[in-house]
Specification:
The chain is an alpha/beta fold. Helix content is 45%, strand content 13%. The protein starts with a strand and ends with a strand.
């Protein structure tokens, strides 16, 4: 329980795999709609390389979503390109059992340098052409979900945080369960669980197949609250005024008064005055550090800015799915419902 945590940042490689699956399903995602309109050459070339490795249903290789992806795109790609040859061969052979692969996949399975470089280039091109233009929206939804879960965990404990996933997941100590087409038990063996919110994950959570890897459960990030699609300053300006809303928004990152003034485009004295009003309203907290005063959002200020609220989730027997939790990765779609559990 103590090792169960929420990922701190969006994982660009998980979003790559899951968005590519959504792209082929013609889902109505603004990010993907923009790509369809542009039809840029780089994205099309990347699709030809990546699509066979990331089928829309069923298994896809674990090496495409390494743990290092949590450190950013380049960290993740470096890890992909240094995957041991034995793992490449094993996972691509398993993929070929379910989906026909092009001849280039054989070179990739042998760790051929040119094939690996082509894969790295395709991952970068896909991210640049499909994900990067909408990354702000992707990151905003994921951050909103992360804040909700971590604040629940901080205030009410890990068990209440796990209960906050209902009805997507059901926490029945000591097992986390979800409906899924495949029956599978994933045993944590004391390692804890990394929960990764995803913009493009749909229907059911996804997990790694290789149980020797650190347990990961990727799940659909909750939609943002009402009207949070608008910029925070736009939503809050009628309530606080444009300048004070800008000051509050600038404190998404803790800042000194001077930094706050520069970010909000006001004088230092004006920034100090607005910070005083926001502090008295309980929206920010201020602490003196030597010659500077540093301002941070309070929980109330964060909720006002993001529209994300934290509260205890009520549960009834109707909220509890049958059994089952993390899916073997990429096994979404049809088939008789079974179950999967993490314990």
């Amino acid at each position: 329980m103590a090792r169960t945590r929420i990922a701190e940042e969006p994982d660009p490689l998980w979003e790559t795999v899951l968005s590519l699956q959504q792209l082929r399903e013609k889902s109505r995602e603004p990010v993907l709609d923009g790509w369809r309109r542009r039809k840029c050459a780089r994205g099309a070339r990347a699709l030809r390389m990546l699509s066979p490795l990331m089928p829309s249903r069923g298994y896809f290789p674990d090496f495409l979503t390494p743990a290092e992806g949590s450190g950013g795109l380049e960290c993740g790609i470096d890890a992909v390109l240094t995957t041991p040859r034995r793992q490449l061969r094993r996972e691509l052979t398993l993929l070929a059992h379910h989906n026909p692969l092009p001849s280039e996949a054989g070179l990739l399975a042998e760790g051929e340098t040119g094939a690996l470089r082509s894969l790295g280039r395709a991952l970068r091109d896909y991210h640049a052409s499909v994900l990067e233009p909408g990354w702000r929206d992707i990151a905003s939804r994921i951050e909103g979900d992360r804040r909700h879960r971590t604040e629940t965990q901080c205030r009410l404990g890990t068990e209440e945080m796990l209960r906050s996933f209902a009805p997507l997941l059901s926490w029945q100590s000591p097992v986390l369960c979800a409906d899924y087409p495949v029956d599978r038990d994933v045993h944590l063996k004391g390692r804890g669980l990394l929960l990764v919110p995803s913009y493009f994950c749909r229907r059911t959570p996804v997990a790694l197949l290789d149980e020797t890897l650190w347990p990961v459960l990727v799940y659909p990030a909750r939609p943002l609250g009402p009207d949070t699609s608008a910029a925070p300053g736009t939503r809050l300006a009628p309530l606080l005024g444009h300048t004070r809303a800008a000051v509050l928004q600038a404190l998404e990152t803790p800042r000194t008064t001077s930094e706050l003034a520069r970010c909000a485009g006001v004088s230092v004295s004006s920034a100090s005055e607005h910070a005083t009003v926001l502090r008295r309203a309980g929206l920010i907290a201020s602490t003196r550090q030597r010659h500077h005063v540093r301002h941070t959002l309070t929980q109330l200020g964060n909720h006002l800015l993001t529209g994300v609220t934290v509260g205890r989730t009520a549960h009834s027997s109707a909220d509890r799915p049958s059994r089952a939790a993390a899916s073997p990765r990429g096994c979404g779609g049809g088939g008789p419902h079974g179950s999967e559990s993490v314990s």
